[in-house]
Structures are given as C-alpha cells and as structure tokens.
Automatic annotation (TrEMBL):
GO terms for cellular component: motile cilium. The keyword Flavoprotein does not apply. Signal peptide: none annotated. PANTHER family: 69 KDA PARAFLAGELLAR ROD PROTEIN, 69 KDA PARAFLAGELLAR ROD PROTEIN-RELATED. One of its GO terms (molecular function) is calmodulin binding. InterPro entries: Flagellar_rod, PFR_Component. This is Paraflagellar rod protein. Keywords: Cell projection, Cilium, Flagellum. The lineage of its organism: Eukaryota, Discoba, Euglenozoa, Kinetoplastea, Metakinetoplastina. The gene is PFR2.
C-alpha cells in the first residue's frame, strides 16, 4: 500500500509538472506566433530574427515531443507497476488462502487423530474390562471345580477312613472269631 501511495503522489506531481510545462510551452508558442506576425511586417529588417524564432519554435516542439514521449513512458511504467502490484496482491491473497486452508486441514487431521486415539483407547479399555471379566469368570469356574474336587476328595478320604476302620473291625472280629474257633476246635491250643 505504501508503495502504491508513493507512486500515486509521484504521478500527481509529475502530472502537475507536465501541465505547468505544457502551459508554459503553449504560452511560448503563442508569443512566437505573435513575433512572427510582427516579423512578417518587418520582414526585410527582421529576417534573421525570424530564422532565430523559427529555430526556437522547432526546439520547443522537439522538446515537447520528447516530453510527451517521456510522459507516455512514465504512464506505461506506472501501469506496469500497478499490474505487478496487482499480481503480487493476488499471489499474496492466494498464499493467505492456502495457509488458512492448510490450518483448517491440519485442524481436521488433528481432530481425526484425536478421535481415532480416543476410539482406540475406548476399545482397549473395553477389551481390558472384557478380559478382566473373562479372567474372573475362568477363575471362578476353576475355583468351583477345585471346590467340587476338594469336596469329593474329602468325601473319598472320609469313606476310605471309614472303610479302613470297618476293615480293621472286620480283621479284629475275624481274628477274635479265628481264636475262638481255634479254642473251640482245639482244646490243647491254649
């Protein structure tokens, strides 16, 4: 913006200088014509003055043409400057737009990653809970099976001890009966 404002000020000053010089130039041409009229009246005496004035007029017109050429070049350069500024402005606006778009895309990707991480964590937590529940269930099943087997073992040990007591009783009874039978059938055994 500063460069454009500076160029606008320079353009305004150049136009003012050009207008002043043009006015001055037109004034000089008008004076020249007046003098030529006077010279024609005094043509014989003032022939040298007429040639000099013609030369002055030629130089002024030449200067004016050069000034016109310079002004035209200045206008073209100024327009080129404005065109370049416009192109740069469009490129900068496009860069800003692309940056905004990149920021939005980055935000969306960040949001997607955060949601994905959250979903993965949730899934991991749920799977962990399910595994913990399953582990507890398996431990409970093992404990229940252990209790049944332990109870069965206790019953078997109890039955074994009872059976051993019964066998021991039968052995004692059989032993007593055997001794009684020996005494009964063999009176000399004692």
């Amino acid at each position: 913006h500063d460069a454009i404002q500076k160029a606008d000020l320079e353009d305004a000053e150049a136009l003012k200088r050009y207008a002043t010089q043009k006015e001055k130039s037109e004034q000089l041409v008008a004076e020249n014509i007046d003098r030529q009229d006077e010279a024609w009246r005094k043509i014989q005496e003032l022939e040298r003055a007429l040639q000099r004035l013609g030369t002055e007029r030629f130089e002024e017109v030449k200067r004016r043409i050069e000034e016109n050429d310079r002004e035209e070049r200045r206008r073209v350069e100024y327009q080129q400057f404005l065109d370049v500024c416009g192109q740069h402005k469009k490129l900068l606006e496009l860069s800003v737009y692309n940056c905004d778009l990149s920021l939005r895309c980055t935000g969306m990707v960040e949001e997607l990653v955060a949601e994905s991480c959250s979903a993965i964590k949730s899934r991991h937590d749920k799977t962990g809970e399910e595994l913990a529940d399953l582990r507890l269930q398996v431990h409970q099943e093992y404990l229940e099976a252990f209790r049944r087997l332990y109870k069965t073992l206790g019953q078997l040990v109890y039955k074994k001890e009872k059976r051993l007591e019964e066998i021991d009783r039968q052995i004692r009874t059989t032993h007593i009966q055997l001794e009684f039978a020996i005494e009964t059938f063999d009176p000399n055994a004692k």
